[in-house]
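Agenda item 2: magnesium ion complex prediction
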Amino acid sequence: MRKVSILGATGSIGQNTIDLIRRNQDAYDVVALTGASNIAQLAKDAMALRADLAVTADAARLDELRDALRGSDVEAAAGETALIDAAARPADWIMSAIVGAAGLAPGMEALKHGTTLALANKESLVCAGSLLLKTAAAHKATILPVDSEHSAIFQALQGEDIRTVERIIITASGGAFRDWPVEDLAHATLEQAQSHPNWDMGQRITIDSATLFNKAMEVIETREFFQVTPEQIEVLIHPQSLVHALVGFRDGGMMAHVGPHDMRHAIGYALHHPTRADLPVDRLDLAAIGRLEFRDPDDARWPALRLAREAMAAGGMTGAVFNAAKETALDGFIAGAIAFPEMADIVAQTLTDMSGHSGLIGDTMTLDNVAKVDHLARKAAQAAVEKRAG
Ligand code: NDP
Ligand code: MG
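Presented output:
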């Protein structure tokens, strides 16, 4: 039996992972499941999967978790240290699906134990890509991408030599406001921003799809994971969201990955790698779909892509600044403090404000230094949000 753990088990990726595991439960020995606020779901899944351990990130909710697990053999724990302990429990395969920079430390811990880390938490690569890759190499751990575009690139690269790659194109649906007049974006509501035309995902990543900050993060993620240059990475708007990525080789050929909008494909690929398994995802009827469209993203609607390029050019730990500013701006929009287009303004402002800390940003990348940069950038971004909120 394969020992598996799921960090962020109660979220959208976590629940899709659990779905795949439950369909073939005899093959898996579930070690740890973690969540944060959704105690009922966490306890229910931990008991159904007979996990050894259930952890909530919220230290104040340990008693509630214990109550929910009463009568079962599942051990309960809570808080940030417990989360790290869960990631340290020996497992063959660990899903990293916590949302935000909070996923970095548990993912790093898992790598230190030489596991195979299925990485959905893109923020860890954006904030600390080189540290993550170095840690994986030092401990003979494997990272498998779960983000659909990166799984697509990874699949297109099987059997290929990365040195023959000329370009990598990742696609974006364009999100909720793809076809809105740009001047109307200032009036976009939270309700409108959190409905995605094609994918069913968590609230934060859905709004990030509308600003294209999700794609901006994925450009940085591509650079970090596949070690290509920023100039080699392109983004295309592709409203059908069926071609997830294309890899262009030096001989002019391109490999495109086509698949349904169902994260269980990418999760299942990482779960069964290096083999392919039968997965419960829809088979595409291309004749019924009829056509696949592609177009260039425009800067006035989606400044996030340009900001990601600025962050990559600045180097060092600017990825952590970018992510922290983006997360804080998103909190500001969700709270109603700033308008939809102001999220990009906050990130641009924070990148400028943080350039005064170039010593720290250019320092050695360690978890502590990334946390320091993250903290300062959140403070700067929060100040910018409050200034705009008045
Ligand atoms: P969700 O918001 O649906 O789930 C997030 C998970 O993280 C939940 O289990 C949540 O617990 C937990 N969590 C929240 N805050 C904390 C914290 N501070 N510490 C520890 N755990 C916490 O997110 P998604 O599943 O959509 O996304 C997860 C990651 O995968 C993100 O990095 C996202 O960018 C990436 N991703 C997601 C895709 C998707 O289709 N959803 C596609 C590609 C990448 P609880 O719910 O109990 O509060
Ligand atoms: Mg993606």
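Discussion summary: The mean pLDDT is 97.
Owner for follow-up: CH.
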